[in-house]
Hints:
Strand content: 15-25%
CATH topology of the largest domain: Rossmann fold
Distance between the termini: 112 Å
CATH class of the largest domain: Alpha Beta
Order of helices and strands: HEHEHEHEEHEHEHEHEEHEEH
Number of helices: 10
Largest sheet: 6 strands, parallel
Low-confidence stretches: 1-16, 18-49
Helix content: 40-55%
CATH superfamily of the largest domain: Response regulator
Amino acid sequence: MGHYTFHLATANKSALDIVRSLAIGLTVATFAAVMFGSLGLRAIASAAAPTAFRVALLTPGPVSDAGWNAAAFDGLQLIKSQLGAETAMVQTTSPADFEDSFRDFGSRGFDLIFAHGFEYTDSALKVATYFPKTTFVVTSGSGASRNVASLTFKIEQAAYVEGVIAGAISKSGVVGAVGGIELPAIRLTFDGFKRGFLSVRPKGRVLVSFIGSFEDVGAAKEAALAQISQGADLLFHNADAAGLGVFQAAGQAHIYAFGANRNQNDVAPEVVIASAVTDIPQAFLKIATEVRAGDFHPAMIEFGMNDGMVNVIPNPHLASRIPPEAWKLAKASEDQIRSGKIVFPSPRATGG
């Protein structure tokens, strides 16, 4: 009986060991299945997850300029908020930085790179050949290729209208224009302002100065004060950050000035009577949306009044200082521009 009991216990132990082994095996198998299944699902999910749309911006100056570069930064921020894009930017300090910055963003897989200035054109065309999946857009650029576009705003249209306003309200018949670096595109803008002014004041004078910098506020102020000393009672500028000096001079002399590129009415609300605005943010967003959708076709792109990308925005605070007759003339000139009765040369035709 005892012998039988021993074998039964042994048999029971063996059975128990078998059950335990099976249980452990099942547990390990289940664990492995769950783990590998989970990892597999994660791998599939990772492979299926779309990569972020990545957009970069190069600027030649500080985005705190309240004008040209600030407008580009506004565009980058709009792309980030509207498209959920991953964004990055760099302020280049010299031409040596151009290619390095392009290559850096290209090698990191950025989908779209905006380079905010004509000076980037040659570097963009060169580097773009090494990054065919990246789209390069050069503002005020002078060339295009398979993946490089140039984007130009016809701000001279708005400058013409501001010239008309200046001609209608100037008491001296003399106005001034201060530019940064003398570039074809800026000369074209000043020509537009001059044409508008002389259309109303054919015997008037437009004084033009270039200070050789887009950042020297002091030099712009001195140039503007020199024009004021020659009788200018209204000022126009296309000098980026340096344009703040023009506003300072106008405020000091108690005259009015016009803003440029961005709505600058709030920059000096007692001085800026109206702004010639290029809607750079909306243009950037339009291009980014098309690039992300695969619908963008690089080319020489021009935006103007008829595209809703160029406008004259009066300063509500000073609107009463512009008489109704001046507004009537301004509106008539705007209608003529939109209808094609007033035309402007292309920047490319002037070497820009």
